[in-house]
Design goal:
Belongs to the short-chain dehydrogenases/reductases (SDR) family. Keywords: Oxidoreductase. InterPro entries: NAD(P)-bd_dom_sf (IPR036291), SDR_fam (IPR002347). GO terms for molecular function: oxidoreductase activity. The protein is of the alpha/beta class. The chain has a single domain, classed as Rossmann fold. The protein is 44% helix and 16% strand. The protein is built from 7 helices and 7 strands; from the N terminus they run βαβαβαβαβαβααβ. Strands 3-2-1-4-5-6-7 form a 7-stranded parallel β-sheet, sandwiched between helices. α1 links the parallel β1 and β2. α3 runs parallel beside α4.
Amino acid sequence: MSNSKTVVITGASSGIGFGLAKAFLASGFNVVGNARSAGRLAEAKAQLDSPAFIGVAGDIAKPETARRLIQASIDAFGQVDVLVNNAGFFLPKPFIEYSPEDIQGMLETNLKGVVYASQAAAAHMIERRQGHIINITAAVALQPNIAVPAALPVLIKGGLNQVTRALALELSSYNIQVNAVAPGIIETPMHDPASFDFLNGLQPAGHIGRVSDIADAVLYLANAGFTTGVVLPVDGGMSVGKW
């Protein structure tokens, strides 16, 4: 057991989630990472190379995985101080082309995963009367963009933006802060480098963001004691309005 704070991160084996794990470890946190693939999680653990990181593989869209994830954090480190609901995927395409499989997949990971992980973490945090829940949503849910047709992600991530505010109120009396970070376009393996010239032009800043930009925002919220119900865009101005 450690005296350090503990963060649970879903979708921690690559991209933003992996970058968050690195940033939290560098800030002295214990990190419990979840991913669907045990193999990819093992690779991430090897790269992080820290005794303060443990991995819990499983589908976060299943409530038993969420419960097992939180219990593993308690067993290893004594508590859960922060939950980062990062697991999810972004699927831009014309609205009429979304298939039933697309819809089900996004509902499973992007919606159910957040609900089950948050329920399990909140039950523990209510007992301790402290904690932080941080949702990773999307700037395009704040300001849709005709160049990025993504009505289905907007539907789900927009709902997560609103439930962030609702849960912030519901859990405020337990000293639990609930916030969200809404990334714009971030340089991750999801994006082909050949597309960067196009992607750079989609935000007023003139360039896409870095994973470290998201990590800085999440770390701020993980340590903020008087900030709750906030959806913080980290998007180079993409969500400010038409430009």
